[in-house]
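Lecture notes, part 5. Sequence design as translation. It can be helpful to think of inverse folding as translation between two languages: the language of shapes and the language of residues. The source text, in structure tokens, appears below.
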């Protein structure tokens, strides 16, 4: 009788798409029979059989569609290498991802090699595995996408699509001076996401240099007004991570 009931249970689980639960049901029943547990605790354990693998699979899917090029982890970020700009408390606060729930922006500023992109990608990775959606692009790539959308008459639709991810990861802002059209598109992007979702950006420019970067002080001011209204700004200071890695391998520095 018990075998018949088990077979029926397994069949119904498979029908409902509870394949992970079905696969672990027999061992779960065996372990449950050996321990004195409440019914609620046992039910929770049974649900975990399905919940955890599904969350892991969904996290992999979110990572795949995010466009994140490298899987960086916050645990691998060497905070001690920095010479300022990000305290341990601030790092832990960022790692909690509370800024995403609050729809706050994060600006990681500083010279090349200080770990800005690593930190941004690590935040994006953790966001994806924690149930949030993310989208990564370099500033140049994203502006090119927006230019193509504008020429095709789909700019409004594209900007609407870019408001959907919980967090937009925007790399290398300011590495190139923007044309008037690019500056307008950049403003429209920031404006579209204003108070709708977080932006995490990296830049080698101080905000005082954005007028020059956008070739329009008024447009730069309007962009920064929206970007910084709800934002956390970190100006990273330190030697280049890349130089550190070269020194470890014994490569001579010129």
């Amino acid at each position: 009788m018990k075998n018949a009931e088990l077979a029926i249970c397994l069949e119904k689980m498979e029908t409902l798409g509870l394949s992970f639960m079905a696969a672990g049901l027999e061992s779960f029943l065996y372990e449950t029979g050996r321990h004195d547990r409440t019914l609620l605790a046992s039910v929770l354990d049974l649900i975990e059989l399905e919940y955890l693998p599904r969350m892991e699979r969904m996290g992999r899917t979110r990572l795949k569609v995010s466009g994140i090029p490298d899987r960086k982890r916050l645990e691998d970020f060497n905070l001690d290498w920095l010479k300022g700009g990000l305290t341990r408390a601030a790092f832990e606060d960022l790692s909690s991802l509370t800024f995403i729930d609050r729809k706050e922006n994060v600006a990681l500023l500083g010279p090349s090699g200080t770990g800005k992109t690593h930190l941004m990608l690590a935040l994006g990775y953790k966001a994806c595995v924690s149930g949030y959606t993310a989208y990564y692009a370099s500033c140049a790539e994203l502006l090119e996408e927006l230019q193509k959308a504008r020429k095709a008459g789909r700019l409004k639709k594209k900007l609407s699509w870019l408001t959907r991810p919980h967090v937009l990861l925007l790399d290398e802002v300011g590495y190139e001076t923007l044309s008037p059209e690019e500056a307008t598109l950049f403003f429209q992007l920031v404006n579209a996401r204003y108070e709708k979702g977080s932006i995490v950006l990296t830049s080698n420019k101080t905000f005082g240099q954005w007028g020059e970067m956008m070739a329009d002080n008024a447009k730069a001011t309007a962009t920064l007004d929206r970007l910084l209204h709800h934002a956390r700004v970190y100006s990273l200071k330190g030697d280049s991570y890349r130089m550190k890695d070269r020194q470890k391998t014994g490569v001579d520095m010129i």
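The translated text above is only one of many valid answers, since several sequences can fold into similar shapes. The two ends are 79 Å apart (CA to CA).
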